[in-house]
Each structure stands twice: as C-alpha cells, then as structure tokens.
C-alpha cells in the first residue's frame, strides 16, 4: 500500500475502530513492530512507549480505566496524519477527564511508526491518570536485573 494521504488516513481510522472495539490485535495490525508512542504529562502512564508490546500494554491500561475516544477531525499528507478527538472517561467515584486531544502520527510503509499525543488540558489528564493508577512501593517499583 502506497503512503498516500488517503491510505495514511485509513490506517489511523482503522486504529480508531480497533481502539473503540478494544481490539488489541486490530491496534497491533496498524503499528510497526518498533513503533514509538509519546505520552506527555507527569503521571503513571506518561513517557515514550517503544515497540508494539509496550504500546499495546498502554492501550490495554486505557481500557481498564474506561477511557474512550470519539474522532472529530483527520488530516493527512504522504507521511503524517493528524487527528483531533474527544477523549473521556466516566469512571465512578474518581476524578474524570473530558477534553480534546490531538495526535500526530508518522506513517511509513503502511504502518504507524511514531505518534505524539497532545492534550488540551494536561493538568486534567495528569489528575485523571493518577486517580486510576497507583505506583507500587519503591522496592517493587525499581527495575530488577
């Protein structure tokens, strides 16, 4: 599949369809094995996820938090797609988030190779993700060799 604006947009639309269905295999199908996904903020899920396995683990956790997304706009060229979407969660007894997000995807060879996620309200995103995910105590949090 050639990297045309139309094909690139279809890849991201397929990603959204898979995400909406909580279909991790469908999400994996549109990602390069070495994909990099950049999550801004200062919360337990922030940081750059490297490789399909880490990115899928991130999306699995979003599903646990009941995080949903509704696309608003897509734009594309031969190398990039931009999406704007409403992202929210209505988890009971927790702070919620309901804001606009923009993602910038880089597409190569018919696969997402890089994505940067930007929130219109990073403070609300940080608060929400901290309410959903607690860190383990320090000895358990440190990497083991």
Automatic annotation (TrEMBL):
<keyword id="KW-0413">Isomerase</keyword>
<dbReference type="GO" id="GO:0016853">
    <property type="term" value="F:isomerase activity"/>
</dbReference>
<dbReference type="InterPro" id="IPR032710">
    <property type="entry name" value="NTF2-like_dom_sf"/>
</dbReference>
<dbReference type="Pfam" id="PF12680">
    <property type="entry name" value="SnoaL_2"/>
</dbReference>
<protein>
    <submittedName>
        <fullName>Ketosteroid isomerase-related protein</fullName>
    </submittedName>
</protein>
<dbReference type="InterPro" id="IPR037401">
    <property type="entry name" value="SnoaL-like"/>
</dbReference>
<feature type="domain" description="SnoaL-like">
    <location>
        <begin position="12"/>
        <end position="113"/>
    </location>
</feature>
């Amino acid at each position: 599949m050639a990297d045309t604006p139309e094909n690139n947009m279809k890849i991201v639309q397929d990603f959204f369809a898979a995400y909406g269905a909580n279909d991790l295999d469908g999400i994996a199908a549109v990602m390069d094995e070495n994909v990099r996904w950049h999550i801004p903020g200062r919360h337990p899920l922030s940081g750059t996820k490297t490789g399909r396995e880490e990115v899928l683990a991130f999306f699995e956790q979003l599903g646990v938090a009941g995080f949903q997304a509704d696309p608003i706009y897509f734009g594309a060229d031969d190398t990039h797609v931009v999406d704007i979407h409403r992202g929210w969660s209505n988890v009971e007894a927790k702070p919620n988030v309901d804001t606009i997000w923009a993602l910038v995807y880089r597409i190569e060879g018919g696969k997402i190779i890089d994505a940067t996620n930007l929130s219109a309200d990073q403070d609300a995103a940080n608060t929400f993700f901290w309410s959903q995910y607690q860190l383990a105590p320090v000895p358990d949090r440190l990497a083991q060799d």
